[in-house]
Amino acid sequence: MNIQTPTDKKNAKRREKEQIILRAAERVFAQAGFGGATMQLIADVAGLPKANVHYYFQTKEDLYRQVVSNIFGIWLEAASAFDDAVGPVEGIGAYIDAKMEISRSHPNGSKVWASEVMHGAPFTQDYLETTLVEWTQGRLAIIQRWVDAGLMDKVDPRHLLHMIWATTQHYADFRHQINTLNGGQPLGEAQWEEAKTTIKRIILQGIGVKV
Amino acid sequence: MNIQTPTDKKNAKRREKEQIILRAAERVFAQAGFGGATMQLIADVAGLPKANVHYYFQTKEDLYRQVVSNIFGIWLEAASAFDDAVGPVEGIGAYIDAKMEISRSHPNGSKVWASEVMHGAPFTQDYLETTLVEWTQGRLAIIQRWVDAGLMDKVDPRHLLHMIWATTQHYADFRHQINTLNGGQPLGEAQWEEAKTTIKRIILQGIGVKV
DNA sequence: CCGTCACTTGACCAAGCGGTCAACAAATTT
DNA sequence: AAATTTGTTGACCGCTTGGTCAAGTGACGG
C-alpha cells in the first residue's frame, strides 16, 4: 500500500497549485469583496498569469465558492469542542476558545464569509439553509438540555449563539478597527489572551454558571 | 426671521434630492459592496438618470463617503445614552438598547460601515484615527471609573466595548443569516425584544452588576 | 419678455473587466 | 521515440464600468 503512482504525484501537484491560488483568492476577496476583486489581482498575488488561474478555476464564482466553503468547513470543525463537553463551562468555553483561535489564524476567511452573508448570501444560500440550519439545531438542542438540567440560567440559546458568533468573529472582521484603537498595533500575545479570558468570563458569568 | 427666500427653497429641494440619492446609495452599497455597486444601479433605484446622480455627487467615492459618514454620525449620537448615566446598569443598558434600535432601523448603514472597516477602511481611515479614537477613549474612561468605584467587576473596558459593538451590529450585518435560521422570517416584535433583553442580561450579569 | 443660472439627460468615451483561445512546453503513456 | 495528455501563456474579445459633455429645459430676477 501507499505506493505513489504518477497519478498521485500529479494530483498532489495540482492540489498544491490550487492551494496557492485559493490562498491568494482568500486574501483578495477579503480585501476587496467579490465585486471589487479582480482575477488579474488574484493571479498577480498568486504569482501566475491570469489564464493559468482560469485553467484551475473556470470562473471567478467557482473560485469564490471554494474559498467560502473552506472557512465554513473550518468553523464546523470547531464544533467538536462543543460536542464533547459535559456541561456549559467546558463546552461553551472551549467553543469560544476555538472560534477565537480561528479568528486569529484565518481572519481573511472570516471576512469573506461575513461579506457573503452581509450581501444576502447570493452564492451560498444553499449552505445556510441546509448545513448551517442543521448544525445550529443540534447545538441549540445541547444548550437547551443544559438549561433544562439547571446547569445554566434560562437563556434563549439562539441569542447566546449569536453573541458568541458575533463577538468571536468581530476580532477577525473588525481586526483593522481593533488595531487602530490599539495604537495602530496588532494585538499582542498577552492582549489576545486577555480578550479570550474576558469574553469567556462575561459570557459564562452572564449565563449563570460557576466559573 | 424665518422668511423663506427662493434660495432657501432651492437649497431645500437640493437637499431633498440628495437624500433620495443617499438612501438609494446606502441600499446598493450595502447589498453589493463598494466594488460591486454601480452608479447605474444607484441611479435606477433612485429613479434618476445616471448623469443626474453625478451632478449631485461628482464621483462614486464622494457618494460612498457621505453614506459612511451618515451612519457614523448616528452611532455617535447613541453615545448620549451612555454619557448621561450614573452607573453601568443604566449606561450600558441604554447604550445596548440604542445600538440595537439602530441595527433594526438602519441595517444597511451598518453593513456599509462593516464592509468599509473589513476592507481596511480605505476611504475613512481618518475617521477611525481621529473621531473614533477620541470617542472610544472617553467611553473607556467612563467604564474604568465605574470599575474603580466598585460598581462592576474588574473587566477590561476595551473588550467589553468590542463585545457590545460586535453583538449589536451582528443583528444588522448578519440579519440575513439570522432570518434564515428563523425559518426565513425576519425577527418579529417579540423576538426582537427578547434579543435585547437576553443580550443586556448576559452582559450586565457578566460584568457583575445587580440587575 | 429676456437673460441668467441651476438643473436634466441621452449619447458618448477610455479603461478595465471576466473569460477565451490557439500556440506552445512539459510530462506520461504506449 | 512517438503519441497523447496535461499544463502554460500572451494576445485577444465583447461588455460593462465610472465619468464627461454638449445640448437642452425650466424657474426666477430684473
Automatic annotation (TrEMBL), chains A, B:
GO terms for molecular function: DNA-binding transcription factor activity; transcription cis-regulatory region binding. Signal peptide: none annotated. Residues 15-75 form the HTH tetR-type domain. The keyword DNA-binding applies. The keyword Transmembrane does not apply. This is Transcriptional regulator RutR of pyrimidine catabolism (TetR family). It comes from Candidatus Rhodobacter oscarellae. Keywords: DNA-binding.
